[in-house]
Each structure stands twice: as structure tokens, then as C-alpha cells.
Amino acid sequence: MVSEALSFILQLLIFPGFLFIICLAFFSEWVLRKFVARIQNRMGPTYTGSGGILQPFADFIKLLGKEDIVPAFAERTYFTLTPLLCLTLPLTALFILPMTGHRALISFEGDLIFLAFIFTTLTIMVFLGGFLSGSVFSMVGGVRAATQLLGYEIPFLLALFGPAIPASSLSISKISTWQAQNNAWGLWTQPIGFGVLVICLLAELELLPFDIPEAETEIVAGWNVEFTGRRLALVRLGRDVELVLASTILADLYLGGPQQVWIIPPIIIFLAKMFACLLLIGYLKTLFARFRIDQVLSGMWKYVIPAAMIQFIILKLIW
Amino acid sequence: MIPTARLGLLRWARRRSPWIIHFNTGGCNGCDIELLAALTPKYDVERFGILLKGSPRHADILAVTGPVTNQTRDRLLRIYEQMPEPKYVIAIGTCAVSGAPFWDCYNVVGGVDKLFPVDVYVPGCPPRPEAIIQGFVKLLEKMEAEEDE
Hints:
The structure holds 2 protein chains of 2 kinds.
Chain A: H1 2-13, H2 18-39, H3 55-64, H4 76-95, H5 111-131, H6 136-161, H7 164-167, H8 172-182, H9 186-189, H10 191-204, H11 216-219, H12 229-254, H13 266-287, H14 293-318
Chain B: H1 8-16, E1 19-24, H2 30-39, E2 51-52, E3 61-65, E4 68-69, H3 70-82, E5 88-92, H4 94-98, E6 108-110, E7 120-122, H5 129-148
Parallel strand pairs in B: 1-2, 1-3, 3-5, 5-7
Antiparallel strand pairs in B: 4-6
């Protein structure tokens, strides 16, 4: 009993919990920066550690040591709460996604709904943090984040719940196990859903075609314009964890998640799938230029939502 | 200033992750294009961890181009004051260094150092991207020497 509890705490704190996820987040940011730089015919971070691998870590440490400013017009509570929740919400979500084996660290029937709840809360926190920072630019950024939510929320949920139908379960662990055992990856059985989920995750992560809430060339730095020092460090780390979360969702719900192949342990297979999804996200991010907010909304409602619904209808006809 | 400023790890991190904000005080755009060339693929200063940031709240280095005019004086000061400590200033181009041909114009204050201390001067009209990168490297060396004292 005691050893079980101890092993659970170790799992939660070190592997595949807190420490592992943070390291994975830093590593993913480096992979993404390097990958984007190579596509753009640049070198990317080079001299910090071997091949610049320590660059995200150096950024994080530097930001921790900078001056911490709270603007006079900012709402202090939310100004502090937003960066904290930006980090803790995606971290919590990663605990319910299977990484090392068939079962996630914490797994219960209906954790898919919990995941959807966390994503919506995240955007609402972004909106509140931007709106209450007391700067015009962050206010515009926050409102844009909330407006964008109206566009991608519905197809996102449809694509998120699509894989639950054939597996007839709302538990992420059970869905990925079902896909791995029956060799019916979501990517092959419902390809439209996969595409819709990728698009919506790009919007959720505020990556390039949908980086409207941050839009550096329009509204300075969007909703995080006023964050400095420690707060900015947490926001940035939260972004990295979200990146890991997005690729993990794709790997678990549409690529069968961690599965044993021959003698290769599940975690290696999982990491391979996760980084494949990460590179796909990075490739799309580099490929596109930013849309306008009205283009995003009309595009989502005209094309992406019907696509997600058609996928759902096809799914219901087959299963 | 900050009690942890003398920690080795922090000094290492600062030297490797200097983010810049670019401000044109009313120059002719020559230096701005050269600075952009230093940021874009051919010279790519992201190799050193240097990123261009939009918000003064996120930046460590203020890169100023152009002579300071009476119009932009207050804006430049406001941007400088919005940056969190520790902050550094790099003056790019002869105009930002001294005011250059405009030094005695009726509407020009002069070089950036009339307003606040400048850490590195990069003269040239405009300076080549190599010279700007050299300026950044000099600033990084200065940052390291400063905290060793």
C-alpha cells in the first residue's frame, strides 16, 4: 500500500509526470524552433548547449531573473492568476493522457470531457488576463482570443469526440488502447476529423495562421503584452506545455497512442508519434500567413464545421 | 538590484538569451533595413538566441536607429522606462550615435546618449549587418564582464 502510494507520487513528480513533461516541453520548443528555422533556410539557435538545445531553458531562466512589473491599471489578482493557470491547466490535462502504457497516470470514464473543459477554461483565462492587464493592446488581444474561440470551439469538440464513437468510451486511455489493439487508427478511419482537429489545435495554440490574438505586427504582443519577468516565463512555459499537449492529443486520439511494437517499449513509440504530430504542426505554422479575425470566423463556420459534421455523419453510418 | 544577479546560472542565461526591441526615432530607414537583414535568414542572429520582440516589457536590449527628434523624445523615454531591469541600449548608425548631419537641426535633440546611457555604439551610415552583429557580441561580452565584478 505504502509502496504503491510512493510509486504513484514518484510517477506524478518525475516520470511520466511533472519533471518529464517540463523537460519534454523545453525540448519540443527547441525542436520546433530548429525545424521552423531549417524550413526558412536559417540555422536557428546554435550556440546554447549542443546545437542550441538549451535555448528554451536559457530563455526561461533569464525571464525568471528579470524585473517583475505590475502595471498600475492592471487587475492584480488576474494578472498573477493567468500565467499560473496557463501553466497548470495544460499540465493537469497531460496527466490524463496515456504516455507510457495503456493507462494514463490518472484515468477515469469521461476524462475526454474534462479535457474539453480544460481547453475552454484556458482560452477564457487568456481572455481575462488580456482584458484585465490594463493595456489597450492586451485588451484587443484578449477579445480576439475570445472571438476566435467562437469559431473553433464547435469543430474542435466534434473532432475531439469523434474517436470516442467507434471505441464506445469517453476515456482517452480506452480509446487509444482500442485503436492500438484493433489496428484502426483514427487517422485512417476518420481522416477528415484528424484534419479538423489539427486546424482547431493550431487555432487553440495561437500558432501562425491563427496567431491573431498575439499578432506581433498589429497589436504589439497581443494579450501577453504587459507580462514581464516571472509571469512571462510561466506564460511561455505554458505555451510549450500546450504544444506537447496538442501533439499528445493527436497521437493518443488519432494515432493509437503508446503501443508495444515487437520489443520497442510503448514510450518510444509514443514519443515518435508525438514528435511526428509536432513537426506537422510546425510545418503548417511555417507554411501559412496570418488570417484576419473575420476570415477565421467565416472560414470556420463555412468550411470546418460542415467538414466536422460530415465526418460525424459518416462515422454514425459506419458504426 | 536583484539579489540573484550574481548567480552563475542567471549570468549564463542572460548572455544567451538577449531579446531586442527595435525603435526608429525618425531616421531614414537605412539602418532599419540593415538591422532586419541581421535578423533574417542570411545572417540570422537567432543563432545567438537573439529574438525580435514587439513589446518593450519582453525585451532586454533597446536597439535605437535614427537621430532623436523632439517628436519622438518622449516616446523613446517611455519605451525605455517600460522595459524591465536589467536593460541595455545599443545605438545603431551614426545618427543614433551622435545625431550625425542633423546634430544642430532645430527639431533634433541629438544622439540617444543625450537621454539615457548607451552601452554599445555601432557607427556607420548605415552599418553593415556584420557590424551590427559585432555590436551585439560586444554587448554580450560587456554583460558578462559587468556581472563578474
